[in-house]
Automatic annotation (TrEMBL):
Residues 1-12 have a biased composition (Polar residues). It comes from Georgenia soli. This is Cupin domain-containing protein. The lineage of its organism: Bacteria, Bacillati, Actinomycetota, Actinomycetes, Micrococcales. Residues 1-24 are annotated as: Disordered. It comes from the Bacteria.
């Protein structure tokens, strides 16, 4: 049986800065990474994370909950949708995303975020 474990994002295990306009803070709980992303107005995956990920679109699977702000997601097939406060979302690999409006978007991601905002392995 796994043991109980608590952590707090005020003391993250790791912080990964985007190429401007935000960061992702990570906690590992019972061996599973969880991130809290802070995406500032003007942030766009293809501008601020593509240089880090070195892929044409985001290849991370996300399972997230939006705390504040709004984000627009554009799938590789052209499908678009927005998420905002109190929205829970599941997002497969193959997308771009951008902050909508002038409010910072903050969300918690329980998806496959272990390698999010890191360069590809050599």
């Amino acid at each position: 049986m796994a043991s109980a474990e608590t952590k707090n994002f005020s003391s993250p295990d790791e912080t990964r800065e985007f190429k401007g306009k935000g960061r992702a803070e990570f906690l590992t709980v019972n061996g599973r990474p969880v991130s809290k992303g802070t995406f500032e107005p003007g942030w766009k995956w293809s501008v601020n994370l593509r240089p880090i990920a070195q892929t044409d679109s985001c290849q991370v699977e996300h399972l997230g909950y939006v705390i504040s702000g709004r984000m627009r997601v554009v799938m590789d097939d052209g499908t678009q949708f927005e998420v905002g406060p109190d929205d829970l979302f599941a997002l497969p690999p193959g997308h771009d995303a951008e902050v909508v409006g002038d409010e910072t978007c903050v969300l918690v991601d329980f998806g496959q975020v272990g390698q999010y905002a890191t360069p590809p392995a050599s």
